Fold each of these.
Amino acid sequence: MQPASPLDRLSGIMQRCRVQAQLHHTGVLCGINHFDAGDGHGYLHVLRRGRLELRHPDAPDLPRSMCFDEPTLLLYPRPVTHRFHNPPTEGADFTCARLHFDGGAQNPVARALPPLIALPLARVPGLHATLDLLFAETDRVRCGQRLVAERLFDVVILQLLRWLLDHPQEAGVRPGLIAGLSDPRLARALIALHAAPGTAWTLARMAAQAGMSRTAFANTFRDLVGQTPADYLTDWRIALVQGRLREGCPVKTLAGEVGYASAAALSRAFTARVGISPREWLRKHQSGSPEMHPP
């Protein structure tokens, strides 16, 4: 018998709910450097050399102060105000990117991650090779430097997500998508939902994908993902609709893509989840107003 093919737990969701990295800084930082949550960005910082004292002045779910003195990766998937306190003269060496997750804080991946992941670089196998390429690009200015660096940041994020899927407890991952994908049975169902959001998914059909009874599937899903399967499916569909609305697709076209019988049915589901209609949401998004999120 042929061994089962390994599950690709990331491609489906990352292709539909993208994260964009923008090179923010490379080089030495001295003294105090402030990163404000009000700017609306997540961040990926790579401490290459030196010592860092990291402070969170107004984040009750994070330590007020943390110290690092070895090469370390710091991922903030959602906006969090944080400050670097580096040595005042010699400083510490960083390569940093701003992060934008499609859908903002309601992106399924961003929502499932802890507010901060701090990992010594040596803990993630294979990461050093990508970082060597990244540092080679950021250490001197060449044609296309920013584009190459940002693509390499994307690879770093994927490698980190791979590690998290295999070490959810060690990373402090809370109930959500990452925890669900870390369970081989739920992963099969989640991959199917991500690949075919327009399918008429029933609890029985989702449970069959996982190879579980309906009751066991529903209970395990709620415990690990933190939602019922139906609620997760609705949130996934709405996140996809938001992305496609930004691309200019009309609601009438999107309804069938995500499993609704009509544009009116999709609009009702969208409004119930987000609090405003698709048209109002798109207008607010295009005007730069803060996004409305599901309750």
Amino acid sequence: MNNKKNRWLLFVLLFSVTLPIFAQNGINSPFSQFGVGELKTHYFHPYINSMGGLSYTIRKNNVINTNNPASYAAIDSNSFVFDMGLGADFITLQNNSQSLYDADAALSHIMLGFPLAKWWKTSFGIQPYSEVSYITTKNTYTLGNGDSLFAQSIYDGTGGVTKLYWGHAFKIADNFSVGFNANYLFGQETRAMTFLFPDSAFMLNSRRLKVTQISNFTFDFGLQYYYSLNENYTLGLGLTYSMPMNLKVKDNSVIYTFVQKGYMEYARDTILPSAEYESTLEMPMVVGMGLSLVRNEKWLVGVDATYSSWSMPKYTENPEINVLGKWTAFDYTESLRFSLGGEKMADMFSSKYFERMSFRAGLHFEQGKLSVLNQQTGAFETLNDFGIHAGMSFPVRKMKSVINLTVQWGTYGVKEILNKNYVQIGLSLSTSDTWFKKRKYD
């Protein structure tokens, strides 16, 4: 009993200590300045990511799959599952004239799962939802009264949104389960527009600053059904649905002038006093469907399709304030994503370590990830996302624990505007331990 209490204390301590890490930012991505930032939810788990994001029909007793909450039903009735991961991103941003390389690494998720009854399993955890991290500098020269005036415009943003979820799955029959996630989205995002006049003694520097505070609940639902075609093959069906919702967020904005002395800034005049107001965050309807085919627990192939009424949560600032202006170079668009993947499953009863490993591969294509203005043509162009994935799992402690590794290469954008090539490496530990089995004594 003391060992179980110590494990619970360890998990709670780890959960609380690592919570602030999800808010850290490192990669400079101009795509994150729109909406609530770049979404981090599609391929967060290395096991799922290694199959191109294939997830709607995936159920494992030692891997927690939040993309379809019905999958929690696969957790053993006397087991406790702990799932924790790390992720590293390496990106190259390119346009016609220049390129930029950047990298970052952070926790990808911390999740727990366990049974409440034989027919009722639960899971809760935390993972990043979106990230804002960008800085762009533009230099201009203005002619006035025969003199040249050098001005510098800086657009920067930091912060992000984290998702805390509590999910439940209910086993309706041996081959049929349903579930739902209650998600709490929280975080802070700061965006600023700074105008500097370093060569002028008569022009004051100014800054437009806005801080957005997000604290909202959302819900999503899932279903999984499996049908035995014969003694060798099983067909899997997965359905998911995320509710469209109109949410409120709190904004706090200020416009002020300042002077610089060395590395220090000193405020001079407040043009717009600090104002707190409500803006709107509209969550899109997201519908997902997946099909998979499994042969005797030896291999799996499957495909997922996801439709979203728009590509990300739609943020609209209160029109009476609108400190940073409207995003005229960006528009929300419908999104359609496909994932295709497969797995050579592990033989857990084999005496050979190589045969107890599993190997996976996949790809994904997402149409409508973003829609941005091409200033050369004056038309909006949809930025599509394509990626190739691969991964494997290494068993530990006689299959009670598994280390999952994935590598993904992807690209999206338009070269004339901005193109992003990226490599993602993910590593996770998924462990299942027997906690709820009653011991018999002679």
Amino acid sequence: METSETNEKKTPYQEHNFLYFGGQETEKSLDVDGTIAYLEQFGLGENPLEQARESEENAFHVEDDYRPDRKGVHYCDFCAAVITGVEYEVLDSGLERCLQCTNSALRTEEQFKRLYKTVHRNMEAFFGINLNIPVTVRMVNAKKIAKMTGMRLVPTPEFDPRVLGFARRDKEGFSLYIENGSPKIAAVATMAHELTHIWQYVNWNDRLLKRQYGARNLLEVYEGMAKWVEIQYLFYINEIAYGKRQEIITMMRDDEYGRGFIRYRQKYPLTYHTGIGGLTPFYNSKSPL
């Protein structure tokens, strides 16, 4: 015979949260808080999975106290996060990399190719575009990236903004060069940025853009959109903290990337959540700004 207690309707939380075992309180034999504190001592509370589980509202507050130019503070040269204590490594190039980025570094060409396919597929789904374009993915070291792009690589304790990859168009087609050993999320951001350039190469008419914006502003039009897409992509995949840091850093840059991004951000407000929506520059290919 069933009692009134067994017939009492459970809340959805009680039905799905195994810690309650169908009851009203956590089982006293389970030290949940103590277990969490123990795991956090080993840095297990700040991994990518934990970050993805955090509320979007909390992640937005990274802007409240984040500054990428504080003197005497070390920053990861890949994710731009503040490095504390000795939990980082210095690469042969002199760049500093936090342990989280080290643990997620892509080591093989096969890893890069698999990740590229995922980003390629997501770009088409997120922005409603067609990227049916053959692209060769190449892995090169940081010094070669700097040499091929004409940028100097002079590592400092501060965050060193630099190119982690680039897209090239030549008689053989399109190639995507990515820095070897890049952390996964940095590689994802770079791929989204460079795939935007490849889309631009295929869909834009330079002659018309020069006539509309002027030749001196053409790089701003190209790079501003690529940075906008890169950061919006990060928000779409719920990498909010990383995306906010990149947004802050980019808005502080006084170059084609920074000025261009600010213009695109004004015309196409960023969507700060994982839901896809809102107007994007892809829909205005003939007049993106």
Amino acid sequence: MTNKPALVDPGVLMLDLAGLELTQDEHALLRDPQVGGVILFARNVASVPQVQALNAAIRACNPALLIAVDQEGGRVQRLRDGYTRLPPMRVFAAQWERDHELAEDRAHECGWLMAAEMLSAGFDFSFAPVLDLDAGVSAVIGDRAFGREPEQVTALAGAFMRGMREAGMATTGKHFPGHGSVSADSHTDIPVDSRPLALIREQDLRPFAACAPYMDAVMPAHVIYEQADSRCAGFSPFWLQAVLRGELGFEGVIFSDDLAMAGAATAGGIEARVDAALDAGCDMVLVCNDRDMALAALAHLHARQQPASPRLSRMRRRDNPARETLLASARWTRARAMIDALGGKG
């Protein structure tokens, strides 16, 4: 029997793809040692066989790559046709008000179902779940959140993450230390949270602290918490080193949010954004939906001679279920029926 060669650690740049198949240029790009991951969007998904084939082609091109997707539920799910339409997480918050145990059980099964389906499609992980509190002011968070209260979000998100891990998928808590109390959308603006640091610790930070045992990764927010630091959280040694690593004792992966977003512009051009994220403590930087910017980031990483982060290998899938076997299982049938009965599919 021959042993498979050990995979090298992924590079530190995650980028996106143009369409439904790899182009010749993308084949070459994905072999670059500084490229460590690919994230798929809705434009990359046409059917069940197509996305499986695309992910297989990515792995054949470079087996070290991590393949990710945003499959939270509700408004944020890239794979729809042929996959379970997941409800927004607010659905579990409403149930939790009536029956804590039942809501947690259902959130757990939803996390398992999402993860199992994405693993069967060839992904390593989904950037989920949201640990933000729904303070009623953030349209970009809103019904993506598990609730308003830290205890509620902790219970439901924790159950969702345990379900993901049971399926064999690593978890990502976002958007640290909490995006729910700013009205601006960091995709298009530069949000500033003016609340006292003590209040953020008392409210928003608590789900991240309590769920730390189930978090394999964290994605910080492109939000400036001006009472704590003039830099957004993803560029802040205070938030990533002093609080996340130091106070919370988090030892997992830190992903930047997309550095092409408007909320990242406070650091300057893409080279400065890459420097700010990595110097603050991010293990991998995302640059999406702007190929020129991604190529500039890649060139800068080569100039930095940026070493790979050994933490990133923890995000690899731990199971690879066959879709046919998954869909024939009694657990998938029960979980799918439970999700369908919830309504609010998004």
